[in-house]
């Protein structure tokens, strides 16, 4: 004899609507937090001098040596060889010991040629050298 009726248990169910709500909140949080990464981490306010004169750092002759992907080297727009480059720079250093020089090298220029140019500049005695690497075309 059975006095109590046995109730059938329901299978557990997952309420999918609340899970979707939680996922949307997480998605919004991630979208908002990744947009803040694009802002600079440190803002600098650089000092400006009222005493500086325009062109004060470029007194005298400024040389630009261009190293293309192929072909001759260039001083400004004049094609030169490695020996001519060293001679012209040595003469310019005798006239102006504070000669400044910029090396514009093509991104595909042979690295060995760049090293040779740096050696020629050092032998000529140039102290103020800056360099940039980009796709360059001599004028």
Residue-averaged pLDDT, rounded? 79
Shape: elongated
CATH top-level class of the domain at 59-133: Alpha Beta
Using only C-alpha atoms, the radius of gyration works out to 34 Å
Strand tally is 5
Task: Report on the architecture of this protein.
- The chain is of the alpha/beta class and 139 residues long.
- Helix content is 35%, strand content 17%.
- α2 (82-95) packs parallel to α3 (111-124).
- The longest helix has 20 residues, at 16-35.
- It is elongated, with a radius of gyration of 34 Å.
Summarize the structure.
By secondary structure, the chain is α/β, with parallel strands linked by helices.
Q: Topology, please?
A:
Layout: H1 16-35, E1 62-67, E2 73-75, E3 78-80, H2 82-95, E4 100-105, H3 111-124, E5 128-133
Parallel strand pairs: 1-4, 4-5
Antiparallel strand pairs: 1-2, 2-3
Helix pairs in contact: 2-3
List the keywords.
139 residues, alpha/beta, Nucleotidyltransferase, domain 5, 5-stranded mixed beta sheet, 3 helices
């Amino acid at each position: 004899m059975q006095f109590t009726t046995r109730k059938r248990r329901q299978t557990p169910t997952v309420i999918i609507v609340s899970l979707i709500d939680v996922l949307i909140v997480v998605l919004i949080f991630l979208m908002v937090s990744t947009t803040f990464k694009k802002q600079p981490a440190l803002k600098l306010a650089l000092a400006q001098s009222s005493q500086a004169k325009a062109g004060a750092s470029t007194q005298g002759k400024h040389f630009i040596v261009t190293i293309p992907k192929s072909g001759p080297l260039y001083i400004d727009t004049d094609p030169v060889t490695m020996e001519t480059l060293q001679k012209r720079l040595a003469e310019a250093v005798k006239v102006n010991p504070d000669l400044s020089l910029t090396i514009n090298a093509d991104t595909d220029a042979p690295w060995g040629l760049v090293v040779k140019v740096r050696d020629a500049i050092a032998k000529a005695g140039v102290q103020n050298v800056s360099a940039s690497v980009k796709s360059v075309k001599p004028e």
